[in-house]
Amino acid sequence: MARLAYSLVVLALLPWALLHLLWRARRQPEYLRHWGERFGIYGGGIQDPAPPTLWLHAVSVGETRAAQPLVAALRQHYPGHRILFTHMTPTGRATSEDLFGADIERIYLPYDTPWAMRRFLRHYRPQFGLIMETELWPNLIAACGDAGIPLWLVNARLSERSARRYAAFPALTRAALQGLAAVGAQTDDDAARLRALGAQNVSVTGNVKFDIAAPQEQLLLGAEFRTGYGGRPAWLAASTREGEEALILDAWRRLGTKDALLVLVPRHPQRFDEVTRLATERGFVVQRRSGNAAIAAATGVLIGDSMGEMFAFYASVDVAFIGGSLLDFGSQNLIEAAACGTPIVIGRSTRNFAEAARAAIDCGAALQIDSADELVAQVNVLLADAERRRSIGAAGLAFAERHRGATARTLKLISPATN
Fold it and tell me: Which residues make beta-bridge pairs with 156?
């Protein structure tokens, strides 16, 4: 009965979902494409795939990037299979194109109606499915159970806030979690929260993001960026969220080191123009990465308006601030910065990566601040102290190395049912 009520709510919300796509398309026209996939409608009828299909669901950019080591391991262990990615956002889809090219197939996951999920599974007939992080779709899970398709929740994380939301629908959440073959959680806290909601067969496998190695071509690109800065000190505000850029720019204008370059990379591509305008309005000389021009001596802010180059940006700077942590967004991923040996500064809002942030701070790989002014003050101190930067960067490298191995543990989790 809980799932029936849920399905009726999903059905009632479909007109709103279409309006939402149109609204989002004002900034990202890509939202107007592939609408049929969102309802489980595909060209060419039901296909008979050969070779067999392995399916991963990664809702957006972060989950897609996190899947890199898992995709590499699946290719090695299942060389005769093809890989299908499902996404919910155009940026997630574009990220998978940048990372994996034509080697995989990618589509949007349908809205969670019983009939759309059944059509999706009949069309692609995956041998098994992996849902990255935390995406619980009750009708999808039930359809996989009916079709005999094992489905795992892997690299799973669940904040206290998200756990409270799921707990508001106990019967629906419990049934969905118990429909999974097993769960591989990132941390003990994540595992405890998932078990409290009804999940069974929960293991702590760690965070596969620690297994992402900085690609050599990205490090070389970062060195090119660094050369282009003309010997100036540089710091990065990475994956910033709405409202944070204005605070950072205002503080940097008042308190910043005069000759240093701020590299500002918004989390969402649709905000590149907006953030460029914010910096220009504050009197900064602004350039954009997409201009592919030498950085002028007068330039105060470089907007990183490119996709798939975050490792290069981390490798190019002296200090990196992790966005989404200055305001209450829960933080973005700090692991890539640590893996590059870049000193990290992070705000107080870290619930999305609570254990990783806590461990990085405890081992000296990251420094925590409370405000934009404190951020700029800390950046100024670090830009003036090369030895301290080296110490923090070395701690970051050691921190990243200690936490590797989640991919192998995840493969071990799924292997009994897939061999």
Answer: 185
Residue 416 has pLDDT above 80, yes or no: no
The count of other CB atoms within 10 Å of the CB of residue 216 is 9
Q: What is the pLDDT of residues 152-182, one digit of tens each?
A: 999 999 999 999 999 999 999 999 999 999 9
Active-site residue among 30, 37, 63, 401?
A: 63
Domain 17-207+405-418 and domain 216-402, same fold? Reply is yes
Write down the residue that tokens 């504050």 correspond to: 282
Say how far apart CA 205 and CA 335 lie, in whole Å. Answer: 16
Q: What is the mean pLDDT of residues 368-386?
A: 98
- Reported as type and span, the H/E element at residue 84 is strand 82-87
What are 378's two structure tokens?
Answer: 């800390």
Alpha-carbon Rg for the chain in angstroms: 22
CATH topology of domain 17-207+405-418: Rossmann fold (3.40.50)
3-state secondary structure of 405: coil
Extents of the domains making up the chain: 17-207+405-418, 216-402
Read off the tokens for 13: 């919300």
Of 156, 261, 130, nearest to 208 by C-alpha is: 156
| Distance (Å) of CA 212 to CA 72, 206, 318 | 10, 13, 21
The first and second tokens of residue 91, run together, are: 């940026």
Find the length of the chain. Answer: 419
What is the pLDDT, as a whole number, of residue 60? Answer: 86
Q: Is the pLDDT of residue 415 over 70?
A: yes
The continuous run of DSSP H or E covering 50 comes out as: none
User: What's CA 345's distance to the chain center, in Å?
Assistant: 19
- Picking from 338, 161, 354, 158, the residue whose alpha carbon sits closest to that of residue 238 is 338
The answer to whether residue 63 is catalytic is: yes
For 346, how many CA atoms within 13 A lie in the half-sphere containing its CB?
33
Backbone angles phi, psi at 23, to 5 degrees: -65, -45
Q: List pLDDT tens digits, range 378-396.
A: 999 999 999 999 999 999 9
Distances (CA, A) of 379 to 60, 273, 302, 317: 30, 25, 17, 11
pLDDT band at 102 (very low <50, low <70, confident <90, very high): confident
What element of type H or E holds 53?
strand 53-57
The pTM is what?
A: 0.84
Class of domain 216-402: alpha beta
In the numeric block, the tokens 């870049």 are attached to 342
pLDDT at position 134 over 90 = no
- Is a pLDDT exceeding 70 seen at residue 223? yes
